[in-house]
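New to this. Please check both lines:
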Amino acid sequence: MHHQSVALKTPQFPFPPHLHHPNRITSRLLFLPISSSSLHTNTTTNSRCSAFSCRGFQIPVSNHPFPNATNSFAVKTVDVATLGNLCVDVVLNVPKLPPPSPEARKAFMEQLSSSPPDKQYWEAGGNCNMAIAAARLGLNCITIGHVGNEIYGKFLLDVLHDEGIGVVGICEEIDAVNSPSASYETLLCWVLVDPLQRHGFCSRADFSKEPAFSWMNTLSEEVKRAIKQSKILFCNGYDFDEFSPGVIISAVEYAVEVGTSVFFDPGPRGKSILHGTMEEQKALRQFLRMSHVLLLTSDEAESLTGIANPILAGQELLRKGVHTKWVVVKMGSKGSILITTSSITCAPAFKVKVMDTVGCGDSFVAAVAFGFIHNIPLVTTLALANAVGAATAMGCGAGRNVATLKQVVELMEAPDLKEDDEFWNELLGEHLDSQDVNFLSKMVLNGSNGRRNHVALQKVVSELLPKLKSSQLEGTLSS
């Protein structure tokens, strides 16, 4: 992927340019029973919605009842639907990251916007990262969100289409003049990279008291159909930048009602939402109660619970949750932890040459969704998630540059764990007497040490590789 330099006389490219495009695959929308007439555009003259933002897939809704969230996935034809956070990243090199003050950051962004960057620096961003990573693992994915009718929106739709990902447009009829408005344009996120490879992010949503798409007040029937036909609805904290808390929670409550599992990753916005408006705080509490899977970093877990130890923080989130089955804590270069009411599962990270960490967390989440849907063992799910995140880190940027299935398979064929016994022993020491601990290890043979069960990496890889290669073969045959 290309990175443009800003305010530098000589452009610099800290990462090697993207030399090849991921293999194109035929649209996975074929799994949806959709006729050509199912694609439609809104032609109402008083609508702010463009032909692109209103484009939706009419997904037939089964008459099968969904009495609770534990229902079988058999009647659901979509694996993962992402809610909101559809944006175009513009990746730029800068001599230094913008100052923290909102006024200075806004001026910095306006300076960047005054000279639109070349298309080679654009990339699909936000929830597109998770959707693309999930689709490349073989999951059927759709995105629910708003895309404007301008060059950035068309670019985003083309990228998602090429990756086999459907788009369900969020559309609402309102009385408005037909003049262009930033409130209906595709969101741009400026991804800024300094000489030390640190990242800064800014978009117009950072400087508004209202959500970017505050004109949306209700869920359309198309959006409800999409949620109902999905096994997982993935939401993150950046949804609060786009939609009102009421709209977000209505989507979550509807998902629970129709048996769709809710995945929630608060991300960096979690802390500000925790101290935001009363409506935002209420919505966050509802998310933490109603989500089936919570995904967060150790810092984010501490912010939400006030507990520094990530395992204790995860157990606290489980206790407060109504539907929560898993709490997954991303530990960065150390690995990851998956906490349930009955067990603790730990997986050290893989040793790889890290080029860029943007998109790693989104890729990780996609693999967790894969494990959740296919009901694979927890330690195997974490191993796969670490591998997909690591494979993305070996590349440059997110969007179309997240890990391909081929890259994940190659990493798993010659894996090397970054074990840190001192770190894990200290973290787990106080929990060994209370819960079973499953630990991914380099050990050739499985074995137990008290309540800690060592699961051999070799065993996990031997079970996982055939599944991945099968998905890889299916993708090759369909392309």
